[in-house]
Amino acid sequence: MATIDITKESFEKIVTDNDIVLIDFWASWCGPCKQFAPVFESLSESHPEAVFAKINTEEQQELAGHFQIRSIPTLMIFREQIIVFSQPGAMPPAALEDVLGKVVALDMDDVRRQVAAQAAEEGSA
What pTM was estimated for this model as a whole? Predict the structure, then answer.
């Protein structure tokens, strides 16, 4: 599957309707973003179980601000609407493949328990 562009209007539907969504936050003037783009695109072709999406931080400043994107490229991965990975910087193909494998292998019941525990802890602080 090829990569898709996400806008403020399409973000929620894409993340809600898909189990795994990888998002590349990028800008057209960013050299490392241009170098990472073919890696991201190539991996999208070999992983139809995941949605590979791109958010142009210049055009979608509201989304970039919401996710506090401070450097690009930044890769963020959602699994069942939960952010399970976020890292600035371009990744080599093997590293990206490894991260995706770990995301697929996650026990999401355990992840939800951890999120709930963290929220409860923050609520009591």
Answer: 0.92
